[in-house]
Design a protein that fits this description.
With 273 residues, this protein is an alpha/beta fold. The protein has helices at 33-42, 57-69, 87-95, 118-129, 143-152, 173-183, 210-220, 240-250, 256-271; strands spanning 3-7, 47-51, 73-78, 100-105, 133-136, 158-160, 188-192, 225-227. Helix 7 links the parallel strand 7 (188-192) and strand 8 (225-227). Helix 5 packs parallel to helix 6 (173-183) and helix 6 packs parallel to helix 7. The mean pLDDT is 97.
Length: 273
């Protein structure tokens, strides 16, 4: 089974979705399951994981509703306040909805030290009891902090979104050092997603991503890496087929079992789809 492990749905709201700037005008509109299903079918992708784009339980319920109405949505990564005093009861509530597989916080928008707050770490640790995963959304400068965070939660299933958003084409030294150190922790996976949006939107080439992909497979192997499109955000820099081909072209010389792992089996195992 082929799985897109990372995509989004939204009913566009200019105030809530202010992160979608005018430079991203192509995605300043609604994106719903009816828009994605034909695209997945075209590329022989059997299902997807819908990931939160807004930090509210309203967003989580919106994604649950979409999944319950569209069985190709195999899992939901929602949002819950991991620092809330009532976190346990909220996790018990979401555990009653099997399509909810895990949670994410938009750490890339937070200040230094956010990941290392004791209350946040305790909240992430609480996910393990309910078999929930946690997606780490950061930018490259936050990798050093992320490494310290990962060390604090050795039992929690974690996945790095968008290979930690390195600025494609810049010096790899810092990124490679810390992504390699994080990969030493076997509870951490990595998504091949969001690559094109960290490159020059109008002038990237597939070869631009080779040193990053080389590093990811060198340090994570093929059993802890999963394909994700980051649709519709990817559309600011590439069509669905273009971003997909970056990954499929790179892995064309891999074994069939490795390809199946990267393109679906790893996501199924990680998210318990």
């Amino acid at each position: 089974m082929r799985i897109d492990s990372h995509q989004h749905f939204w009913i566009y709201n200019p105030e809530r979705d202010s992160w979608i700037t005018d430079a991203m005008q192509i995605i300043q509109r609604n994106f719903l399951p009816a828009d994605l299903k034909p695209v997945l079918d075209q590329h022989r992708i059997d299902g997807c994981v819908a990931v939160q784009a807004d930090q509210s339980e309203t967003e989580t319920q919106f994604l649950i509703d979409q999944a319950q109405q569209n069985n190709f949505i195999k899992g939901v990564v929602g949002w819950v306040d991991l620092r809330a005093d009532n976190l346990q009861s909220r996790l018990e509530f979401f555990q009653s909805t099997p399509v909810v597989k895990g949670f994410r916080h938009i750490i890339q928008g937070e200040g230094a030290g956010f990941m290392l707050q004791s209350k946040f770490i305790q909240g992430v640790k609480a996910l393990h009891k309910y078999n929930f995963t946690y997606d780490i959304l950061i930018k490259e400068p936050q990798l050093e902090e992320a490494l310290e965070f990962v060390k604090q939660v050795p039992d929690q299933k974690l996945v790095i979104d968008h290979i930690a958003k390195p600025k494609v084409g810049s010096d790899l030294t810092y990124w490679r050092k810390y992504i390699s150190a994080i990969a030493q922790h076997k509870n951490v996976y990595c998504k091949l997603s969001g690559l094109v949006t960290e490159a020059n939107w109008n002038a990237w080439q597939a070869d631009d991503f080779k040193p990053y992909l080389d590093t990811i497979f060198d340090v994570f192997g093929s059993n802890r890496v999963m394909y994700g499109s980051d649709w519709p955000v990817c559309l600011v820099a590439a069509g669905y087929e273009q971003q997909l081909q970056v990954v499929t072209h790179y892995i064309q010389q891999f074994t069939e079992s490795e390809k199946q792992a990267i393109m679906g089996a790893n996501a199924i195992r990680f998210y318990n789809l």
